[in-house]
Amino acid sequence: MTYVLPDADVLYQALLARDPRFDAVALVCVTSTGIFCRLTCPARKPKRENCEFRASVEACVAAGFRACKRCDPAGVRSPGSWRDGGLSEA
């Protein structure tokens, strides 16, 4: 089964609003910086044309992006636990 992301414009609006409902739905990859973040990251928001959205930490890394040091999307929790809110046992 393949996970289909919501429309990129919907995800961009969620990014601008820092909408927590979308935090476990997608990550934003910023092409101008090479960094990926959670949609709720407090960092300055990128221009729409510099945003790509991916469904997982692994997909972001595979595309050549590195994790944001501010929101730490790939940090303390294992990448697999990011989707379930960190509730899984590592």
TrEMBL record:
<dbReference type="GO" id="GO:0003677">
    <property type="term" value="F:DNA binding"/>
</dbReference>
<keyword id="KW-0010">Activator</keyword>
<dbReference type="GO" id="GO:0006281">
    <property type="term" value="P:DNA repair"/>
</dbReference>
<dbReference type="GO" id="GO:0008168">
    <property type="term" value="F:methyltransferase activity"/>
</dbReference>
<feature type="domain" description="Ada DNA repair metal-binding">
    <location>
        <begin position="12"/>
        <end position="73"/>
    </location>
</feature>
<dbReference type="GO" id="GO:0008270">
    <property type="term" value="F:zinc ion binding"/>
</dbReference>
<dbReference type="GO" id="GO:0006355">
    <property type="term" value="P:regulation of DNA-templated transcription"/>
</dbReference>
<dbReference type="InterPro" id="IPR035451">
    <property type="entry name" value="Ada-like_dom_sf"/>
</dbReference>
<protein>
    <recommendedName>
        <fullName>Ada DNA repair metal-binding domain-containing protein</fullName>
    </recommendedName>
</protein>
<dbReference type="InterPro" id="IPR004026">
    <property type="entry name" value="Ada_DNA_repair_Zn-bd"/>
</dbReference>
<dbReference type="Pfam" id="PF02805">
    <property type="entry name" value="Ada_Zn_binding"/>
</dbReference>
